[in-house]
Protein: Imidazole glycerol phosphate synthase subunit HisH
Organism: Pseudomonas agronomica
Amino acid sequence: MIVVVDYGVGNIASVLNMLKRVGAKAKASNLVDDIVNAEKLILPGVGAFDAGMKTLRESGLIDVLHQQVIVARKPVMGVCLGSQMLGRRSEEGVEPGLGWIDMDIKRFEKRPERKVPHMGWSHVACNYDHPLVRGLTDESRYYFVHGYYMCPDNECDTLLTADYGQKFTAAVAKDNIFGFQFHPEKSHRFGMQLFKNFVELI
């Protein structure tokens, strides 16, 4: 069973729909027992960093999530804001992140030649081979909506990169922890492949 963590912020219905399409057994829950009994976890999120972290903290789920992800090493996928919350902090606010990956979140600088936020479809490139990106090709593209981007301390934690007037981290992977800056649940067959790969991770 995959549990989509329902802490009040996120595109949960679309994530569940994509999981259903790839044949996964999944549900949304904010119950401690469900999180403890889950095989894998998904941390969704939309909106501002501080609001997301405050809402997650108020849900009372941070301790059990930390236990399951860091101690029990349960696979977890962060999506959009959920991926940024895996890091230490964001230039968007002052709240501390989960700190599961050594990274900060930085804002795209506004330039005459590009608009912020970055909205629309972009191709991604793989930094290295990983089961999570099995089946990705040069034509793989994903739907982005974000004004901030992930900056891991360790280049090895960057799994995918994209370009928006500068090269930036589009996905991170560290041990059992994964995060996608884009919306795989809105990225049609390309996103479906990523969800399928996550479901099949051992």
Remarks:
- The domain at 2-200 is CATH 3.40.50.880 (Rossmann fold).
- The chain has one domain: 2-200.
- The radius of gyration is 16 Å.
- The chain is about 25% helix and 30% strand.
